[in-house]
Write a structure and sequence with these properties.
Elements: E1 2-11, H1 16-32, E2 36-52, E3 55-67, H2 69-80, E4 85-93, H3 106-116
Antiparallel strand pairs: 1-3, 1-4, 2-3
Helix pairs in contact: 1-2
């Protein structure tokens, strides 16, 4: 089985409940095609470097997936016809970095540090 990191960018006007539905929808596609979701991260609404389909911002969702190439083909095929998505990207990796969350907000880090004390 191969390891993949998969990121999708939803339109900026997508509600939090729709983001949750998108996450569940694509998780089910992965599991239906003998894949396994190792971790899901919701990076939130971030600025885009350039306009994509007249959007300045996008909601990012990141998956760490274990599976085969056919599963990725099915996932990307369904994403290519989804009107709520702006972009998607899949990268094959050698191992996952499950310890670091790169898009956690500074306020959340401070709260976690204060709770440890």
């Amino acid at each position: 089985m191969n390891l993949y990191e998969h990121t999708i960018i939803a339109r900026q006007d997508t509600s939090p409940s729709e983001i949750k539905q998108l996450t569940e929808k694509y998780s089910k596609i992965v599991e239906k095609n003998d894949g396994e979701i190792i971790k899901t991260e919701n990076w939130g609404l971030l600025n885009l470097s350039y306009l994509i389909k007249k959007n300045k911002k996008g909601s990012y969702i990141h998956f760490k997936i274990k599976g085969n190439g056919n599963m990725i083909d099915e996932l990307e095929k369904s994403e290519s016809i989804d009107k709520k998505l702006l972009r998607y990207l899949t990268i094959r990796v050698k191992k996952f970095d499950l310890k670091v969350n790169y898009f956690i907000k500074k306020d959340d880090i401070e709260k976690k540090d204060n709770n440890k004390i």
